[in-house]
Amino acid sequence: MEAPAPVSTPSPGPPVEAPSPPPAEPGPAPSKYAPLSAKGEDFGEQPADVLLTYAEAVNPSEASQCVGLNASGGHEEFGGIEQGPTADTIRLELVPGGAMPAKVRCPAETEVSPASRVRASDTVTGSDVILVAPAAASPGGVVNDPIDSRYLTEVPFGTSSFWIQPWRAYLDTWPASRLLDSLGINFNVTAKEAPDVARLLQESGFRLARIEIPWGSLSYEHPTQFAYESRIPQRLTALHEHGLRPLILLNANSSGPAPNEPVTIDTIGEAPAGSTTVRLSPASASKVVPGKTGFNDIGFGGMADVLIKSINSRDVATLSMPLAQALPAGEHEGATLLYAPFGPPKLSNGAPNPAFQATLAGWLSYVATVNHEAESIFGPGGYDFEIWNELSFGSQFLNEENYYSPARETGSGSVTEALLDETVAYIRNPAHGISPQVGVSDGFASQTPFASGANVPPGTTALSKHLYKNPTSIPAEYTPEPKIRPLNALSALDSTTKVTEANPIFTPLFTPSYVSALPEYYLTATQTETVIRDLAPITTTIYGVPHGRNVSPPGSEAPQTWMTEYNLRTELLAPINPEHPGEYLGSHVSPTQAGRLQAEILLRSLVSMVSKGMTREYFFAASHKESDNLISESFMSAVDADPSVYPGDQPGGETMEAFRHMLAQFQGPGPTGAARQLQLLSIAQEGNHTEFAGDGTAAHPDLYDREALAVFPFQSSPTRFVIPVYVMTPNLTTICDSGTPEGSPARFDLPNENFRITLGDLPETADPPAVSAYDPITGEATPARLISRQGDRAVFEIAATDYPRLLTIEYG
Q1: How high does pLDDT run on average in the chain?
Q2: What does the pLDDT look like over 426-441, one tens digit per residue?
């Protein structure tokens, strides 16, 4: 063997230290103590967490290095750690969508300190791996496809479904400002009440107000002035002083369709029913303007609804239609209209109709007068117009055939289309000096599903909607519509009806039993006319005409959708109560309960409609409309007693307070750039509460609350999301707990239900977000927490009810 090589010795000098290794990254130290057992836990019948049990009280940090092991031995990280139900337990939350591990490894030191704790080697011989016991059964279920475009595309126009929810076809995350800027009201108060009401609205979060300035408010003698000059400016000024942008309704209701002059018409002798002539006194005859003077309320029920076509030298008047009933001799109320009712836009030969053009010129002069008044108060662009209210009542002036029988003339063309086209063109014509910031909404669209962005005139800002729907008891009051084919939960046709008639009635094979009384009715597919067809970013068609958020007329932007009237009268709601089946709410509700119900209805309507794509919602109405009033009677009584003293916000009522509470949670600078588009990946429900029962088949299943859970995200800052969450119950007056006192404001509320929602595309941060929930009705915090997260996904648990609670997720 060779001798060792000689070792060289350095010359004496100062000692040299060897270089130190870089410091190790700090990390959690292994737990000194190992769990005794591990048991799986489910939530809503899906894997949720592993519950570790220790010998005595432990801190969740002691399980920070635990990992799951799948059946093949691969590692699976956990998404969260929290204290278990007792001090000696810890929960290891699965990552979003994670599977239950077969085993858990929890590294532990071997020391035993104190002696009462157990070492890993003592728990599992020579190992820190523990088998995970199977989870006990947990009632509930999960929806793994809460958002899917098929919920709209597979329910085409002409079909309907009790199960399929078109509002779940897409999900938007909007800047919170979209909700804050959307809240409006129909401002139907007097000039004396206007300042205090406008102040209350501003302080309650309202930013918009709809106000009608009818054509009939103009003076007959001076048609570019208002007949009551001070009233309209006073109301508009109150809105301006309190930051409320007006939507001015341009309308010609048949009760006073145009500038008019009251007249008393004195008849000589009785005219029998069916007569087309009547004799007048000489004084009355001298006041007649043929084709514009008429009797009030003896035809369809409006001003000058039976006109005098002509009058001869003997003072015999020829009427525009036969009398529906005898007209006695004597004095009768009547009026002379400045303009005749609209006739067809074109004559039978295709030429423009001079009579239509004359009335149209008067209408456009009215538009100019109203615009001048609005601009003088709000400045250029500080207001908007809505062209017409509803066609279902008070619109007889649009068709002279309502006044003449037989018709005065023949012709062609649509009055509503021509009036809309000409009015939008007038407002958009730069020669008229109207700011392009003035919005124009198509009020003719308010009660029809057929209006589309494709067929409105260029320059139209919005389609108006009035989505009223009275409660319906199904199946007792449910009548299938002709030609509408029902679909079951599998999107399959669900009727055996054969098409043997021109308008066949397709009766569903199964009809569930429930009461449909919800503000989101037109977001569902209960009837084929769902407004989702106009709100969705998905383009669909109705009889070949495209509908959707992005559909526009040629060369113009796509119009928005504005709900310019909505309410659901609490007195019409029908509570489901075994003790009082079929009885209406009006006889079983206190004023406090009615106020709370209205607040819940309107909060639901606002967050759902805006989340799904509407940009404005004007609730009906501020006051003077019985159970439709948003403002309390006590507030209005105080204002009427002394308008000089503001009553304060508190007497405004529960609806005003609820809006104030809710909108305060959405304040913030908003996102930087476009809002971050969150994803809703799954909804798990603890328990199996349903909204209606099916027949036990896959085609007609129970409708569980998890399938009606609304999750509507908004972003209030670059790091903060506010998400209204609630169960979209079909009937807000279901009495779920018969033990709730009859007079309790919460009598009709859905008791707390726990849901876990999985969201995606969240910010990926080192620290978890702060999570909270808030009830805008009670003004109190409610249960909510982060369960687990991994990457951009996270699971949140929230206790939901049947009106919006606000889940807030805030990143540091």
Answers
A1: 91
A2: 999 999 999 999 999 9
DSSP labels, 618-633: EES-SSSSGGG-SS-H
What CA–CA distance (Å, rounded) separates 42 from 137? Answer: 7
* Strand extents, DSSP E, 144-281: 159-161, 174-175, 183-186, 208-212, 245-250, 260-267, 277-279
Token pair, residue 494, equals 């669900």
pLDDT of 754 over the 80 cut: yes
The beta strand positions in 733-783, using DSSP E, are: 753-760, 770-775, 780-782
Helix (H, G, I), strand (E, B) or coil at 108: strand
Task: Please tell me whether the overall predicted TM-score, pTM, comes out greater than 0.90 for this model.
Answer: yes
Percent composition of the chain: helix, strand, coil (DSSP 3-state, to 5): 20, 25, 55
What does DSSP assign to residue 349? T
| Rounded distance between C-alpha atoms, residue 464 and residue 561, angstroms | 6
CA–CA dist 68, 337 (Å, integer): 84
Sequential DSSP letters for 376-422: HHH-TTS-EEEE---SSSS-GGG-GGGT-SS-S--EES-HHHHHHHH
Distance CA 595, CA 601 (A): 10
Tokens of 219: 């003076």
- The number of C-alpha atoms within 13 Å of 284 and in the hemisphere containing its C-beta is 27
Q: Tokens standing for 468?
A: 């009223």
Answer yes or no: are the C-beta atoms of 25 and 85 closer than 8 Å: no
Helices 633-641 and 194-203 pack at an angle, to 10 degrees, of 140
Confidence band of 127 (pLDDT split at 50, 70, 90): low
Residues whose CB is less than 8 angstroms from the CB of residue 174 and which lie 6 or more positions away in sequence, other chains included: 610, 611, 675, 713, 714, 715
- Rounded to whole angstroms, the Cα distance separating 415 from 417 reads 6
Distance CA 116, CA 72 (A): 34
SS3 241: helix
Query: Which pLDDT does position 570 carry in this prediction?
Result: 81
Distance CA 501, CA 659 (A): 50
Task: Find the length of the chain.
Answer: 812
Phi, psi of 309 (to 5 degrees): -75, -40
Residues whose CB is less than 8 angstroms from the CB of residue 59 and which lie 6 or more positions away in sequence, other chains included:
none
- pLDDT bin (cut points 50, 70, 90) of residue 782 is very high
Average pLDDT over residues 632-654: 94
